[in-house]
Amino acid sequence: MAINLSPTQRRVIERIVNAFETGRAEGDYGAISIYGDGPHGIRQITYGRSQTTEYGKLRLLVQRYVDAGGIYSSDLAQYVGDVGSIPLTDDLAFRSLLRRAGREDPVMREVQDAFFEEEYFLPALAWADQHGFESALSALVIYDSFIHSGSILWLIRASFPESPPSHGGNERKWTREYVEARHKWLATHPRAIVRKTIYRTRCFKREIDRGNWSLALLPIRANGVAVTA
After folding, report:
1. In a domain, 142, yes or no
2. How many domains, in total, are found in the chain?
3. Which structural domain, as residue segments, surrounds residue 24?
4. C-alpha span between 193 and 207 (Å, rounded)
5. CA 106, CA 110: separation in Å to the nearest integer?
6. 160 in any annotated domain
7. Would you say residue 1 lies in a domain?
8. Is 180 inside any structural domain?
């Protein structure tokens, strides 16, 4: 069976990940952080409702906004070719344009909603379907991994024995073991900024322990935020 999320379950999943990324369940479309977690540990901008990175997909997001003809599209157009190629962490004008577009322009909010849906949420659900997952909590765990790490990292998968449901494994056991393995990986990561993100896996462990597989038990505490639908 394929994963079949209700509109409420999808909304709860998105709001939990928003809380992880920006500290707000509704998300902060203009949020900017700078962390030393780019290639080879270089500093990079992370931006938007669910935070995409300068050396990840930020160029694609900016290009989509420019193409959509938003208030700041003409100003941001000059930066499209530089994002991910030339460090922009210290370009205050670029950062200001991103922040203002996210907080002032409905077009940027619409572009971001479609962007995070198409680039992260749908690929995560496709992975979940391919591997036989059905529960909303498993979908949340998988989607968060796509947002936070870009995918389900093989080095984490290889660190525990349970197979995914598509290969005869038990979904709940796989999800529990994956969350435990990911928690250990985050907690022992060489980068301090990554170690601090164990609030994500702590949240998942709480929901697994209380059997919240349908995400119907609300609120869910995520990064200090009481998330409801």
Report:
1. yes
2. 1
3. 7-227
4. 24
5. 6
6. yes
7. no
8. yes
Confidence of residue 2 (pLDDT cuts 50, 70, 90): low
Report pLDDT digits (tens) over 172-213.
999 999 999 999 999 999 989 899 999 999 999 999 999 999
Indicate the pTM of the whole model. Answer: 0.94
> Which residue type does 228 have?
T
Residues with Cβ within 8 Å of residue 172, at least 6 apart in sequence = 135, 208, 213
Instruction: Summarize pLDDT for 154-172 with one digit per residue, the tens.
Output: 999 999 999 999 999 999 9
Ramachandran angles phi, psi of 225, nearest 5°: -105, 130
The 10s digit of each residue's pLDDT in 95-150 is: 999 999 999 999 999 999 999 999 999 999 999 999 999 999 999 999 999 999 99
For residue 224, what are its two tokens? 């200090």
User: What kind and span of H or E run contains 124?
Assistant: helix 122-130
Whether the Cβ atoms of residue 203 and residue 223 lie closer than 8 Å to each other: yes
One-letter identity of residue 94: F
Distance of CA 205 to the CA centre of its chain: 18
Compute CA 13 distance to the chain's CA centroid, rounded to the nearest angstrom.
10
User: Which whole-number Å values give the CA distances from 153 to 108, 116, 223, in the listed order?
Assistant: 30, 19, 22
